[in-house]
Design goal:
Length: about 270
């Protein structure tokens, strides 16, 4: 029989630094993660892809623009990817946090992130587009295991894995039943999540992540009644945070961990 998922602790309210403290530094770069950790976020969020030569790399999109061409991550080698400068999008003249000090940053590999931050933080890792990357689940679990990050709660789980793909999460659950998983959803107007549906999710996942705009008190209660936690994304405004907290959510993804933590401390 497949093991039941581990429940996430109900305390503390989780602050998940979305792509790092990505309001203040380019997403998925060391400065963005460093800031998030300094600010006191419980987790740094990583979006995962895989290059043609099989390296797990941390960036948001399936593709990047290189020399005027859009290229898919799974069609380029990690060497080619290393020419890409993630700060270019961030360093716009209108961005008050733009800085030349970011200009030389490169897309980190998962290995580099784990080596750099080790035990200093916890990792909330999204498997993006798993259909494009056969075997990514095993590869990720093996890499996390090499770093002794699995099956460790001190006091929070060192690693949480998230995906929009239920197949990918079920695969991870089979490989590493002690790792808490988050099923992601995005809805335009209304969340279509029945108790029956959530019950099925609770067989492999410990919680759901969903776009904040569709979260209601009713949804939060239904999710909790299925034994799942709920982490809305992406919350960067105090008013929205307060309203979601009053509905009973368990944590948030945010680009501004400092703002969220200051506000939580005032509650
Ligand atoms: O992983 C939760 C949230 O980050 C999903 O949206 O596009 O920011 O990865 P995205
Ligand atoms: Ca994500």
């Amino acid at each position: 029989a497949v093991q039941q998922p581990v429940p996430l602790p109900s305390e503390p309210f989780l602050v998940i630094a979305h792509r790092g403290a990505s309001a203040y530094a380019p997403a998925h770069t060391f400065p963005s993660y460093e800031l998030a950790i300094e600010m006191g976020a419980h987790y740094i969020e990583l979006d995962l892809h895989r290059t043609k030569d099989g390296k797990l790399v941390v960036l948001h999109n399936d593709s990047i623009e290189l020399n005027g061409h859009e290229v898919e991550i799974d069609e380029i080698s990690s060497d080619v990817l290393s020419a890409f400068k993630p700060a270019e999008e961030f360093n716009q003249p209108t961005n008050e946090y733009a800085s030349q000090k970011f200009a030389s940053l490169r897309v980190p590999s998962l290995e580099q992130v784990l080596r750099e931050f080790g035990d200093q933080t916890n990792y909330y890792i999204e498997i993006k587009s798993p259909d494009r990357y056969p075997g990514i689940e095993r590869q990720l679990i093996d890499q996390l295991s090499d770093h002794h990050l699995l099956d460790r709660d001190d006091p929070l789980p060192k690693v949480i894995i998230q995906s929009f793909s239920s197949d990918s999460l079920k695969e991870v659950h089979a490989l590493s039943p002690g790792t808490p998983l988050i099923q992601l959803y995005s809805f335009k107007k209304k969340a279509k999540l029945s108790p029956a549906k959530l019950k099925k999710v609770s067989r492999y996942a410990s919680g759901i992540g969903v776009n904040a705009s569709v979260v209601t008190e009713h949804l939060v209660n239904t999710v909790h009644e299925s034994g799942l936690a709920i982490h809305p994304f992406t919350v960067n405004e105090i008013e929205q945070l307060s309203s979601l907290i009053s509905m009973g959510i368990d944590g948030v993804f945010t680009d501004k961990p400092d703002l969220i933590i200051t506000s939580l401390n005032q509650h």
